[in-house]
Amino acid sequence: MGFRTQEEEDALSRMTMDEFLLGKSRAAFLVRASSDALRGDGILRGDLVLVDRSLDPRLGDIVLAVEDEAFVLRRFQDAIDAALKVEAVVTAAIRKFR
Amino acid sequence: MKNRLIMHLDGDAFFVSVEAAKDPSLRGKPVVTGQERGIASAMSYEAKKLGITRATPVFQIRKQFPQVRIVNSDYDSYSVFSRRMFDIIRRYTSVVEEYSIDECFADFTDVSGFAENPRPTLEALKHDIHKELGISVSLGLGPTKVLAKTASKSQKPNGLTIIAGMGQGLRDIELLLDRTQISSVWGIGSATSIALRRRGVSTALELARKPLSWVEEHFPKPVAEMWYELNGISVHRVHATGIEQSETQKSIMKTRTFSPASNNKVQVFSELSKNIENACRKAREEGLCAREFSVYLKTSEFSYRRHWARLAAPTNDPFVIIPEARKLFEQIFDPTRRYRATGVSLYSLVGESAVQEDLFGISHADKDRAEVFRAADRLNRRYGRGLVHIATSLLALRREEKDERTLPFLPRGVHRRLVVPFLGDVR
User: Do B421 and A54 lie within an 8 Å CB cutoff?
Assistant: First the structure.
């Protein structure tokens, strides 16, 4: 890790929230978590969750998938998930405290 | 002359496809949008199969086909998906002409390596759109706009029809044109198609086969142009649209969608005024003046009205263009309709230095104003857009601030704005 260089600091201080959250993503969508099913992964009910359709899921990613004709959030685990219909990969969760 | 390579892209049942991308429970089902208007505005292919057409009343669909899902139109989403779709195409070529919300032309003539083998590029483009937006599109590639559009229409949904390889593809073109009724050729109106039928021309192929002299003798110029286009000789060029323009730009265009739609004349003109101001700023940045300009208004049903005017002298001064734009605006604004976007295009651009001041009668007042704009541009560059602006744009700017407060992903001053569609609650 180490310290950030001055250039990196400058880049951060000029960054807007959407640049920080979206990066270069051009395929971002938002959903809201309506359950605590992924509490262990740090996603709580009510969180706004950013997903990106252009990414391919890697092991351990949290993904947006389709189950019973509805979107669900799931952890992308292993070969069993081959049946999982992945729509997008979760890139961020946003939570407000007040 | 180089053969052109023109692509036409058409979204498949675009509005309904967007709805299905946002809601998996709609996929593969008969779906209709337009609940809020009481008549179907778009149908999924499954709904079309049932015989539902545009303008079928919603109550009738409910009664006759209870299995059909009827949803409200969500124009904000359609417009975000549309913008993203066109941006994906611009990754492959900069010459993209947005023709309507779900249709565009793109010119690949100058894309290196494309002509030898166009299919992989077009497949990649389709793949990107499907992966990133979850919708399918149909593509046609041909040497002219008319042939490209005929090609894309020939195979839907999810089609990819290439008729650019004139050599061995000639037979395919003929088969395609033979199947195409003259009335469904893009650009042929009903009066013209009746006149053509009367003279024994009922398919596109029959028109293409007639001698040009015969066409010119019996029909006005647009039909002769159609003849060229059908024979693979490009008459209608692809005019690049969109905010990001290449260096070879022939126009500067500024447009903005606002929400909710408005029929407030002052408000709508204010939006237009702001676009003119921004277009003029862009022109000044590039040292260009416009001889011509056009304004357009887009209604909440996505019909466009565009008017065009020539300026007395080339200019990039919004104080000159705004009063001229007001005249056009008065002609096209209809208080019974609600508008959701305005736009302006500056055309026939010439370098500022090429403008001969005395000859065009530019007064000293204009020169002073040019100095004022240079100062304002400097301030805006330093402190952010909208610090110094023209009073007619004020309402639009206020509105913009309000929009930003309600939409957390649209902070002020970010030049590459990205609206993030919300897909709802998820377990």
Answer: no
- Give a yes or no: residue B34 inside a domain: no
Cα–Cα distance, B46 to B61 (Å, whole number): 13
Chain B CA closest to residue A94: B408
Tell me if chain B has a CB within 8 Å of the CB of A29. Answer: yes
From the list A27, A34, A50, the residue facing B426 with the nearest CB is: A34
Residue in chain B nearest A56 by alpha carbon: B131
Residues B141-151: tens digit of each pLDDT: 999 999 999 99
Contact status of B87 with chain A (Cβ, < 8 Å): yes
Chain A, 35 to 94: residues with Cβ < 8 Å from chain B are 35, 37, 49-50, 53-54, 64, 66, 69-73, 87
Cα of first residue to Cα of last residue in chain A, in angstroms, is: 32
Residue B195 lies in a domain: no
Question: Per residue in B328-368, pLDDT tens?
Answer: 898 889 888 899 989 998 877 777 765 544 334 444 456 67
Structure tokens, B282: 């862009």
Contacting residues of B for A53, CB less than 8 Å apart = 131-134
DSSP code string of B302-365: --EEEEEEEEEEEE--HHHHHHHHHHHHHHH--TTS-EEEEEEEEEEEEEGGG--TTTTT--HH
Shortest alpha-carbon distance between residue B421 and chain A (Å): 5
Beta bridge partners of A89: A52, A63
d(CA B153, CA B131): 22
Q: Which among A21, A69, A84 is the top mutation candidate for probing chain B, defined by the most B β-carbons within 10 Å of its own β-carbon?
A: A69
CATH code assigned at B306: 3.30.1490.100
In a domain, B331, yes or no: yes
Does B126 map to a domain?
no
pTM: 0.68
C-alpha to C-alpha distance for A61 and A80, rounded to whole angstroms: 14
**Domain ranges (residues) in chain A:** 24-94
Q: Which CATH class is domain A24-94?
A: mainly beta
**Interface ipTM:** 0.88
Residue carrying the six token digits 């204009």: B366
User: How many structural domains compose chain B?
Assistant: 1
